[in-house]
Write a structure and sequence with these properties.
Blueprint (H helix, E strand, L loop, with lengths): L8 E3 L2 E3 L3 E4 L32 H15 L1 E4 L14 H10 L5 H14 L3 H6 L2 H8 L5 H19 L12 H9 L6 H12 L8 H9 L6 H10 L10 H11 L2 H12 L5 H4 L10
Antiparallel strand pairs: 1-2, 3-4
Helix pairs in contact: 1-12, 2-3, 2-8, 5-6, 7-8
Amino acid sequence: MKRKPAGVAFSHGIRVRRLAKVVAAKGATKRSGPPVRTSQPMSVASPFAGFPRPSAAEITRFHTVLAKHYGERRQSKRGTQRGTQRGPEILDTVVGTILSQNTTNTNSYKAFGQLKQRFPTWDAVRTARPAAVQRAIKCGGLAPKKSQWIQHILRTVYKEYKQTTMEHLRAESKQGVHAQLERFPGVGKKTAAIINLFEVGHPDMAVDTHVFRYALQLGWVPTEEERLAHNKVSEGKPWPAVTRDSVYEHLDACFPDRLKYSMHLILTDTVGGLPVHCGAKNQLGFN
């Protein structure tokens, strides 16, 4: 498998340029730049307590293999200090991630560009007529619902902070970012984890459709048969249903913090990552 050059990473409808550095892996790589911020995990333990996979060693080996093909992804040095801005506004990433739901990266990226072109500021989006916002993002699909979510967020933060911004999240803890964002309709654990990972600097293993599919295929979460068998005999807390949210909590607990940024981008980058060779119709596994 040849490594496809990746000048940009394409994740969740956003071209990640200045936020990531793609480094071809040749044996052991020397990590550069400031250390990743360490914070208390969102959940102390996996919701699948006792399930043995994936181990930290397995993830480390898997990352080494993937990095040889797709390059190790490293965060840039810029804006990694708490409270500093590293490029786009947090609202840019929040809105971009909302627009990426149930559509392709290409369409959501186009919708975001048209929204910014039609409304140069988030204040302009906040005060615009809903129909005008819908027209701007129509190419991304689900425009009525997404425009409602976006304008609700903008109006709420303006009411609370007297300005249309979410830059205050840069001073929040990992848990605080999740709490602040997940109160909004249309924003779940994935979006909150992306803000932590790309904007705030907290290691957070965001799980999108690609990561969820790979986790199932690689046996990183229990099968339904394993889950039911465990719950039948276990005296402890039962394992929940395998969903995107429970898989997020499990992988975030299992993945080493230092690999979450690189692994997330390799597993989700539709320009130069694993989805290029292993799309939805392919089965990923070890031979």
